[in-house]
Amino acid sequence: MDEKLKPILTASEVRSVVKRLAGEISADYGPRVPVLVGVLKGSFVFLADLVRFLSIPVEIDFIQANSYGMRERPLQQVNIDKDHLGIDISGRDVLIVEDIADRCLTLKELVARLQAKGPASLKTCVLFQKVEGSDVGLKLDYLGATVGGGFVVGYGLDYKERYRELPGIYTIDT
Ligand code: IMP
Ligand code: MG
């Protein structure tokens, strides 16, 4: 294993977290059929696992945002690379599925854009939040776990496009 990486959550620990979130979502939405909107690219692994633990039917779409790209530091503004949805979300129950929330700039921008499309409801499901209790000014409706302040990779999350394929979660010395 890459010596810059320190394990923080095993694949099986991540699995328990995702399973719990799927249980909460299934209980809250059934019998409605929500539209899950995954935020590419980081949420692709999380969303794929999450939907397989659900006990309700859903529809799935994607949106693409980018606050780091190949850079060391996040952008001060969020780049939305793709906000066209194939599914018409007006009047639908929409759940944004995001890998990690830090300053929440990305989520706030996405919430504003999707809200403008007139959904019946709009909630957020975030696998990780950085630093417990940090005031991000946005309510996270479903939160998997909090992680420390360091940069984390694995399970879809990248550092300069690397490490997305790792099944567990690691912090990386950048
Ligand atoms: P925010 O807008 O500051 O909340 O940043 C959120 C976005 O930055 C997420 O969608 C991630 O793509 C990326 N990001 C923030 N922190 C990390 C991290 O520790 N690892 C990987 N990606 C991160
Ligand atoms: Mg992301």
SSE arrangement:
Layout: E1 5-9, H1 11-29, E2 35-40, H2 44-53, E3 59-66, E4 79-82, E5 93-101, H3 105-115, E6 121-130, E7 142-147, E8 152-153, E9 169-172
Parallel strand pairs: 2-3, 2-5, 5-6, 6-7
Antiparallel strand pairs: 1-9, 3-4, 8-9
Helix pairs in contact: 1-2
Bound molecules: inosinic acid (IMP) and magnesium ion (MG).
Tell me what the structure shows.
Helix 1 (11-29) packs across helix 2. The protein starts with a strand and ends with a strand. The longest helix is centred in the N-terminal third of the chain and has 19 residues, at 11-29. Strand 5, helix 3 and strand 6 form a beta-alpha-beta unit. The chain has helices at residues 11-29, 44-53, 105-115, and strands at 5-9, 35-40, 59-66, 79-82, 93-101, 121-130, 142-147, 152-153, 169-172. It is globular, with a radius of gyration of 15 Å. The protein has a 6-stranded mixed beta sheet with strand order 4-3-2-5-6-7, sandwiched between helices. The protein has a 3-stranded antiparallel beta sheet with strand order 1-9-8. It is an alpha/beta fold and 174 residues long. It has 3 helices and 9 strands; from the N terminus they run E-H-E-H-E-E-E-H-E-E-E-E.
